[in-house]
Amino acid sequence: MGLYLSTPNTEKLSQDGENENLRYGASAMQGWRTSMEDAHAVYPDLDCSTSFFGVYDGHGGGSVAKFCAKYLHQQLIKQEAYSSGDIGTAAQKSFLRMDEMMCGQRGWRELAILGDKKDQSSDMMEGVVGSSKSGEEGHDEDWSVEEGPHSNYEGPKSGSTACVAIIRNNQLVVANSGDSRCVLSRKGQAHNLSKDHKPDLESEKERIVKAGGFIHGGRVNGSLNLTRAIGDMEMKKEKSLPAEKQILTANPDINIVELCEDDDFLVLACDGIWDCMSSQQLVDFVLEQLKTVSPITTVRNSYSWIMFNSGMNNAFMHGFRQARKLHLYRNLSIYH
């Protein structure tokens, strides 16, 4: 969805950082789109024992992706399940909460602000990449109801995928809604930790048809080529059905993995990458790059290689390395 430029915008905005357990790098590039529709969130210190990384691939505009990058991790740590250690349940509730928050006067106002950025080059990281010190920075108050001319606003017609990785000690929790993908490199072998939510999946087709939708031309209701996303409220209007059973749902798949010394790195990437490269091809390329250059240079080099060989514009990668004393040192690089 969206318009394209005659030549890609290849300007990259990059950053890197670290804490006592991990290092990370991030790079953002607009590519062929007329505006930047995607966002990411980087919180290596979400709390004293947890790191959070998320990629959000917007469609129909960038406001929903930016909204998720700004608020999803905040909602995660507010959940009672998060406090009790059930990160998977907390992530699921946070994904569904995004749709609720984007309705009404306040939802409309927040989306209007996020969608009103004029300087894409300077704003690509603003409100998107989190503080390397604490996920609490900018922590919002309870989502209060506002009255105004848009009090009956039913939410955005645009939407975004969400694929997040939450690391607590040696546990990795992956939550995914949409066709972005999370891949773990373990001893050089690619392991998919998420499922691409596409219309050709029988389980997705069944839910769509039961909710009154249809698949045409490989697209949901002839429009979207993915079956789960945050936003897209036009496809979530059946009031007799819960959020998880709507034509389109934000409900994520949750995958929980115990990290070990065999783990090399983790990749989070938008569908544009996987349309042109297999999971193993990208893992092989990253491994080769990491032999000779630093993680942040690998991010930049890999991004350029992907851009000019696939014609796409988004990727996100994390790396893990084992250190002595059985302490899992995570050498984190991130593409977006």
Any descriptors?
single chain, 336 residues, alpha+beta, Phosphatase 2c, domain 1, seven-stranded antiparallel beta sheet, four-stranded mixed beta sheet, 30% strand, globular, disordered C terminus, PPM-type-like_dom_sf, protein-serine/threonine phosphatase, EC 3.1.3.16
Helical content class:
25-40%
Secondary-structure-derived class:
alpha+beta
Number of helices: 9
CATH architecture designation:
4-Layer Sandwich
Q: Enumerate the spans where pLDDT stays under 50 for 5 or more consecutive residues.
A: 117-139, 303-317, 321-336
The largest pleated sheet is described as: 7 strands, antiparallel
CATH topology: Phosphatase 2c, domain 1
Mean pLDDT: 81
Total count of domains:
1
Strand content: 25-35%
Query: What integer value in Å does the Rg equal?
Result: 19 Å
What's the CATH H-level homologous superfamily?
A: PPM-type phosphatase domain
Terminal residue distance:
19 Å
Overall strand count: 17
State the order of secondary-structure elements, H for helix, E for strand: EEEEHHHHHEEEEEHEEEEEHHHEEE
* CATH first level: Alpha Beta
Anisotropy-based shape: globular
Task: Describe the 3D structure.
This protein is an alpha+beta fold and about 325 residues long. The chain has one domain: Phosphatase 2c, domain 1 (4-Layer Sandwich). Helices cover about 25% and strands about 30% of the residues. Strands 3, 4, 5, 6, 7, 12 and 13 form a 7-stranded antiparallel sheet that branches. A hairpin with a 2-residue loop joins strand 3 and strand 4. Helix 1 (about 65-80) crosses helix 3 (about 85-100), helix 1 (about 65-80) crosses helix 4 (about 105-115) and helix 8 packs across helix 9. The model is unreliable at about 115-140, about 305-315 and about 320-335 (pLDDT under 50).
